[in-house]
Amino acid sequence: MRAWLLLLLSFGSYVVALGNPPAVAGGTVRKHLVYFRDKAGTPFSTARPEAFLSARALQRRSKQKIAIAPRDLPVAPAYIAQVRAVPGVQLWYTSRWFNAAMISCDSATLAQVQALPFINKAETLNRQPQPVARPALTPALPHKQATQSRRADYGLAYAQAAQLDAVTMHDAGYKGEGMQIAVFDAGFPSVDQLEAFKPLFSEKRLGSTFNFVDKTKAVFERDIHGTSVLSTLAANAPGYFVGTAPKATYHLYITEDAGSEHPVEEMNWLIAAEYADSVGVDIISSSLGYTTFDEPSVDHTYPDLNGRTAIGTRAATLAARVGMVVLNSAGNDGDKPWRYIDVPADADSVIAVGAVDSLGVRAGFSSVGPTSDGRIKPDLMAMGYLTAVIRPSGVAVRGNGTSYACPVLAGMVAGLWQSSPALSAQQVIETLKRSGSQAATPDNERGYGVPSFVRAYQLANPGKSLPTKPTGLMVYPNPTASNELFLTIPEELLQKTLRVRVYDSRGALVLDRSMPEAGAEMRVRTGVLARGTYTCTVTADAVKRTVRFVRL
């Protein structure tokens, strides 16, 4: 995949257009979106989509019987070349779905661009220079070590997972394996340092990263919000904190500039969604929302919340049309004069996620519906009040916001889709709604309520029993390229001091370690092992269990 990503990033005319800083001829340089009249002369064809979409993206569409459409074709390279040739233009990105380009230049230069015969229209995305916010990072701290019970395996995160039946989902073997989730946010500082995220790297489950604000691949910086958001999904530190999809593959994209608020951020959202589509992402989790901006003249109004007006809303709709499940936080304005959901949560095919507490009571700040065209919003609810999150310091704390409810639910969605792969994206959404705690009486405060993995699984798989938790000793991943083993401990060995031994293929003992008070999952640091087949034994008192694994 990484080779394909490099190819994707190398051709500026396709998705990420790299350019030189503009020569300022006078006036304020701002970002603009210019729309092209057509895609005439493009060398790309819907008959050869492999030229601009990854194999996984094509597989996702084929599985859901979604045809490649003209809107999927990249912008015509000849048009891009002529725009870039205008002195003073910096080309940032191009959009396949909008048939448009994001550029920066002053107003006089924009007039020259608009005079080109293939330009349809233009709109300004920011009306004043955007500051770059780079907060100082708190040094990462190691997490606390293992605790005792099944509940304690999740640490503070237990309630939010259990509310959605995600603990049962994990016990049935659905932790997001094989699913790909893109997280859109404002920054992910310390994710590359924290213990809770180490499995992402050791198990090679970090799919791609991109900073669409600065046009770099650097994402382990900027605002701390994304780190906390990601922890509710991806953290995997049994005995301290476990997210709702601890085994999924993640793509981390910065689309939000926390230092300012401009429509350009909705455009960043669009470009990130196209990128996610291209690399084959299954689920987008976006804890972002837009209503007001630094320039009041471009604020969204309630009539804009009709599912088809705002850039972000149109982008989210198109992302759903190519077979991704898109979840977006509903917003935190429920107790303010602006009570309504944010953009792009108003999109018809997007799951707008509101916030409840651990008892299922709606948080007062959780934004409400309906949309201006009368549709029910939010769609579903998850725990967003006193939600457990991990800060860049490595400390688990509690926080509030639909920003946390959204990823908590997104992880459950990953497990549901993993368990029921024949479902289309829209069938996943409908199944979740039908599983909601108030599916029969949805309203504009709690939508269809809090969904249940167990109910959703039964709806998607009528007559089929949910798999039971494996009873034997298991090691994962297997085969492994890591210097750590993750063991699933059988019930008869729980709460006991364990002796863990590892033998090579000749029977030589290569590891002998005592592990106190094991929980349901345990991490064992093996050090560097040579390639080959190994046997791991775990004993306590007179009980002994054995499992074999392969070191790559």
Q: How does this structure look, described?
A:
The protein has 552 residues and is of the alpha/beta class. The chain has three domains: 2-124, no CATH class; 150-460, Peptidase S8/S53 domain (Rossmann fold, 3-Layer(aba) Sandwich), CATH 3.40.50.200; 474-551, Immunoglobulin-like (Sandwich), CATH 2.60.40. The chain is built from 14 helices and 22 strands. Helix 9 (225-234) runs parallel beside helix 12 and helix 13 packs across helix 14. The longest helix is centred in the C-terminal third of the chain and has 18 residues, at 402-419. Residues 1-25 and 128-149 have low confidence and may be disordered.
Q: Show unreliable segments.
A: 1-25, 128-149
What name does CATH use for the topology of the largest domain?
Rossmann fold
Termini Cα gap: 20 Å
Structural class of the secondary elements? Answer: alpha/beta
User: Which strand order spans the largest sheet, edge to edge or round the barrel?
Assistant: 6-9-5-10-11-12-13
Question: At the first level of CATH, what is the class of the largest domain?
Answer: Alpha Beta
Strand content: 15-25%
Mean pLDDT: 88
- Major sheet: size, sense and barrel closure? 7 strands, parallel
Helix content: 10-25%
CATH-level-4 superfamily name of the largest domain: Peptidase S8/S53 domain
Number of strands: 22
CATH A-level architecture of the largest domain:
3-Layer(aba) Sandwich
Our Rg estimate from Cα atoms comes to: 24 Å
**How many domains in all?**
3
Query: What's the number of helices?
Result: 14
